[in-house]
């Protein structure tokens, strides 16, 4: 989760970067106000910075350091008082000698990409009477390891009020609490994602005095501890406390209720147990309360209903039991976001209840709502996000339901229910639309031209793709799997220029495969339709494509004989996604996780009427792990180049007319776990002494002239030379050739993987929104779109 969140923060920061980078400073070339000593300090600081991108280029061209980018001087003394280097793309070493600037009160080096921090060795160079009030060193990328061994150097910064070191690796600092408690004026402390692991403080927590603190962010560390009861005595005036994602266990200490000024409390994603005290109703000022993703049990205290300042309430993914009724919410008139998903609570809301709030986000996913759609939800006409997946809903009030779902503006998720409406006359205005696994019937609805994700799979939609869908210019991800859709998809595809993921499996689409495929496509699944004609060569020119499935159609002709430009299947682009990332697809019947990952590359052309020789180009796609050409009419031999496809895990060439011998080089395929060469015209001996013998006879049967283990013995008279022993070097040349080709093809994939896939992965998206939430900001999908475009420019 940490990595996800940090990468996501990285995305956001990039966005901010775009908007702040080109700041133009107005300078006066005639006067040099700058103090000479300050200038020297600044130049020492600059000396170790790698500014290859020119973020602080004015530092060398201007004489007056007060006119340098990011440097601010006092108008009377001309001493440097403020240094703001946020988002300057600085790399190399961050030398904190900069703290020697005598009158510096504000230092912001955040969101850069430094590799090392040099902290002052002794404190005596930083004046005891340091004026520094604000210090922010948080890096742009949290999981890039920017270390700091200890925080001792902080002790001279006696005026410090704001200290932000989030994202710096502080695991070696064994008593961070002691270090920060030497700062008498500290108001705000942010040490999120610092890899802190010591929370139980010795000798005892009361030893420390952090009484001035009002904001404390410690999320994403690894405290693996309970919350000491005295912890909340540290910080009585605190208004914002974030302890999310910390592996904290045990009960919520009752001393928390002393924090009367608390406005923002986030304890989510820990392992807290026990029940929530009724006393929580005393936190009268609380606006944001997040207890989600813990193991809290018992009843949700009815006193929550006293918290009339609440804007955001999250209690989902706990072990709460009992009932919750409209009474609990009767005073929560400011409520804006309500997340109660994944719980067994019984909801007892009167049918005629009209809530006092107007929500922007509501999540009741995976709760026992059904079979009726809760009537009070229809009153929420300002929803941006509505998550009601897996809630057992089958009955809706048609008119109210229609206007509700049309009004949802960001994400509508009704997956995994049994809703059987005809919504063909509606226009859905959200960016993220998930109605999969229901019984929706009739024609497809109209969709906002801003839609990014559309998943309507496993329903009974029929008819063809509406003409209005031509306008889905931002569409990134479309799944129509398993419906009764028909007609041609020709015209639309070329308009969906941003499309990355397309699954039209199991419908009755017909016609030829369009030749103008969007160039960013990563996944193309047209399986089990009625497509006919030849495979357009343009498909093999999609450099991001890593999953191509055209199986079970009526395709004919031979495979295109052009140069295959499928770079993703040749180069293993490691940064694309964390390797444990999965994209959810669904198999008929049960839900299951089907892994589509950039490191799992697939070509499946099986069960068509393809013929002719297989293009040599196919065997140059050395990263392909699954290749299925079975049940076609392919002819010709398997080239020994196949030995270069070293990642192959599953190879099916069965039921074709392949002939000739099985190349010795196939024994290079060390990961091969499934092989089927049956029902062809292969001849000669199965290469001996290799793992090709570990497959049983069914992998080879129905090749009348093929022999050797596991098939029948070859008779030596017929075949005197074929029983030669396996030799290591025979195919080295071809293997090397493939490898070489793999390296040759461009590295230009850029960050596309990260950006592209953000849309595909629920987990990420939620983390993304959570992050936005934490920052207290609201950047909506338009920003994602901007990021998208920005990245594209960047990766060129
Ligand atoms: C630049 O300096 C000159 C000479 O001191 C002064 O007259 C002028 O107002 C200054 N301009 C700006 C923009 O500060
Ligand atoms: C500075 O950064 C650039 C780009 O990241 C890199 O190519 C170069 O080697 C770096 N120089 C030093 C001295 O670190
Ligand atoms: C302290 O400052 C002096 C000169 O002002 C310098 O020679 C010395 O290297 C500095 N020490 C550290 C630890 O930065
Ligand atoms: C903590 O420090 C503040 C001022 O710095 C002081 O007023 C307060 O009494 C101290 N509290 C404890 C428990 O030492
Ligand atoms: C967190 O801490 C626990 C115990 O101290 C340790 O076993 C675990 O590996 C740590 N996790 C991470 C991600 O550092
Ligand atoms: C915390 O403070 C309260 C009063 O403010 C006091 O009653 C309690 O004993 C303190 N707890 C600890 C563990 O210091
Ligand atoms: C808080 O809620 C409880 C139960 O709903 C109620 O009895 C009590 O009067 C409320 N307290 C305040 C201060 O509103
Ligand atoms: C959840 O609560 C039930 C009682 O409501 C209890 O039996 C069960 O052990 C709890 N599960 C966990 C994981 O705490
Ligand atoms: C709300 O809940 C209370 C208690 O469950 C009930 O008495 C009341 O009639 C409900 N309905 C409305 C519309 O508030
Ligand atoms: C859709 O609109 C048409 C024309 O207005 C109407 O005939 C049809 O009954 C509507 N379908 C549904 C499901 O409301
Ligand atoms: C296998 O068949 C090919 C023709 O398809 C022939 O040239 C070759 O000699 C045969 N090899 C053996 C060992 O029979
Ligand atoms: C096949 O040949 C091996 C030795 O080459 C022999 O041990 C085995 O019995 C033979 N099997 C058959 C079915 O002829």
Automatic annotation (TrEMBL):
The keyword Cell membrane applies. Gene3D superfamilies: Ribonuclease Inhibitor (3.80.10.10). Its EC number is 2.7.11.1. The chain crosses the membrane at residues 739-761. It comes from the Eukaryota. Belongs to the RLP family. This is Leucine-rich receptor-like kinase family protein. The lineage of its organism: Eukaryota, Viridiplantae, Streptophyta, Embryophyta, Tracheophyta. The gene is 25481287.
